Amino acid sequence: MAEALALLMLKKNTGEFSLGRGGLIQSERKIQAVALIEEAAASGARVKKACEVLGISIKSYIRWKAGMTVDRRKGAEKSVPRKLSPAEVEQFYRAANTAEYYDKTPAQIVASLLEQGTYYGSERTL
Fold first, then answer.
1. Along the chain (126 residues), what's the average pLDDT of each consecutive run of 10 residues?
2. For residues 54 and 102, what is the distance between their CA atoms, to the nearest angstrom?
């Protein structure tokens, strides 16, 4: 138990977890904090006390333990799984900038390309 608490105190003194209200803690650090707290709890320490030593709230620990470690702030970088790659977007722009399509709307371009058997994405996507 003493080793886990000493490790927690060492981590707190490096300032890795207590960044103040609203400070961004990296995902890896959150996972590391959960592991440290669980190790301390397994050694007999109270979870709330271990959270206090790290400088985080018990609610943050519960969220992080549930797997919510990504940045959810407004304007944070998001992962869009169906997003077109830059190469796919470039293919569409190359096709749309030909003489045949230069004066057409995206809806007309997508419909015309679809009739030819080429599909880059929906009108809205493009």
1. 54 52 76 90 90 87 85 76 85 86 87 89 79
2. 60
pTM: 0.49
DSSP string computed for the chain: -HHHHHHHHHHHHTTSS---TT----HHHHHHHHHHHHHHHHTT--HHHHHHHHT--HHHHHHHHTT--S--STT-----TTPPPHHHHHHHHHHHTSTTTTTS-HHHHHHHHHHTT-----TTT-
Cα(56)–Cα(22) distance, rounded to whole angstroms? 11
- Are the CB atoms for 66 and 34 separated by under 8 Å? no
- Cα distances (angstroms) measured from residue 77 to each of 32, 67, 70, 80: 22, 18, 10, 10
At residue 57, what is the residue type? S
Q: What's at 26, amino acid-wise?
A: Q
